[in-house]
Design a protein that fits this description.
4-stranded antiparallel beta sheet; 12 helices; Aspartate Aminotransferase, domain 1; 2 domains; about 40% helix; single chain; alpha/beta; Aspartate Aminotransferase, domain 2; globular
Amino acid sequence: MINLDTLLRENIKSLSPYHSAREEHQASGYVYLDANENPFGRSLNRYPDPLQKKLKQALSRKHGVVADKIFTGNGSDEIIDLLIRAFVEPGKDNILVPEPTYGMYAVAGQIQGAEIRRVALNADFQPDADALLRQANPDSKLIFLCSPNNPTGNVYEEERMVEILKGFRGLVVVDEAYIDFARQESMARFLDRFPNLVVLRTLSKAAGLAGIRLGYAFADSSVVQVLTSIKYPYNVNKLTQRMALRRINKGRQLRKVVRLIREERGKMAEFLRRCRFVEKVYSSEANFLLVKVQEDPGELIAFMKNHGIIIRDRSNLELCERSVRITIGKPKENKQFMKLCNQYDQKFQSNG
């Protein structure tokens, strides 16, 4: 067990958690007159399981992580927010964020009143373990590592993440939203070795269920207990739980989709490297590509939008000058995008 006394906020230590009616009684066969529910209706008139037991059991079987080390949330964003609210004292504590990366780590920290200590990735988009640990002090509570990283697409070297886990006294949160598209194994296999490790996963990417908002975390059981004590009583609704259970059991179908996206990613990268308006296509193990263009990316973005395709400007992020992020779509959509790239390439060549 991790010793949370030095990490938890004082008011969280003394918190008396709210216990919902369905947390106390869930068995079938009873007449429920305890939760002020409308008695008329089919299933959805009743509150969902607040502890998501069936869903956690299914995730446990899928990932080989015991159920009491799994927390489920309304997307990974809820879990990020809960971690910061549980461990970061407003106006006193700080979190460490290697950048460029997913923007919600810093946003959630700022909402909580945390100091955000930003540490630039190196030229290969890898976290500098020494630089990160030098920025840490006794008030540093969380480090966020996104691997594969958004928006760069690369995985962080396992040795670097292990070094950070060894050297940091707070929680190290490894966000693996895109891990299904990568060759690297999940860091979840280090849970028993490092009780300060938290691994985030989601059904939004490879599982194709961004609309149901289901994220989950693997962590030491003591951390899971803390998150459970401060979450909203019914944070994952019944429809989300139901849909998630269906999709988790369709492993063969999901693997087929992941293979197709990987193949399309390779084709897209190879094509873009031949385009004259492209300066560099960064290696990616996610479902997107970060692409650096020769000139202001605003012209490319506007050209694509005028022809019905939206891509993301990332040029305002550190180390991402003149870069756009392109999500891998369906084969037909990717062909449409590449056709427009050829048109833009001709325009770029004539202007040059």
